[in-house]
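Hi P.,

Sorry for the delay on this. The queue was packed all week, but I finally got your sequence through. Input first:
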Amino acid sequence: MKPTHIGTALAVGTLVMSAGAFQAAMAEDPHSISANIGVVSNYIWRGQTQTDNQPAVQGGLDYAHQSGFYAGTWLSNVDFGEGNETNYELDLYTGFGGSINDDFSYDLNLIYYAYPDGRDSDFSELGASATYKWLTAGIAYTFYGQADDAPGVANTEANYIQGDLYYHAALDFDLPYELGLNLHGGYYDFRYNDGGNDYGHWGASISREAGDFGTFSFNYDQIGRDTYDEDPKLWIGWNKEF
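Then the structure:
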């Protein structure tokens, strides 16, 4: 799932989906299927709102194998502002994750972000990340994108762009009272517009599992470039896996 920045939330679409799917694969049954549902007061992805600062309902379905292979899909409503008729996002993903020892693990993934009722907005990424104890760092490479109307995009034969890079890192800590703290940041390096659209962002999340009631989080995110919305984003989230 792209955000689970309750998790995408603490993600951190990092793709918490990959971590969750890999953990599920560690069950005794070599095959496992899980589902998740969530509600957020603001769908934030890589520092930017995907719902025009409005709430979102999200959910997904995951398959995982004990070998580390996983695949799944994730859905959320979106709102990109006036003049854009896109109403929802559908992500399809697959990957492989594993661990070398108790302290070091890795994940490789392929994600397709689809906006079926939008115009030329779909894109695909290849991603890789590694986790050492409480530190996770990774990179995502856009190898396919439909961006006909993006400012500064060259009018290529197929009107596609590729080559964007997204770097991200996160720190995860256990706090007293069964709380979790996530500190995260990232930098988006776009291939087009001579760096005019590049930006960095950072944020923090505090979460707590509540048993059968799921996981609740309180989150802060902010972008560090004045060509975007620099206002701090404070939002809450809830997520439950089945």
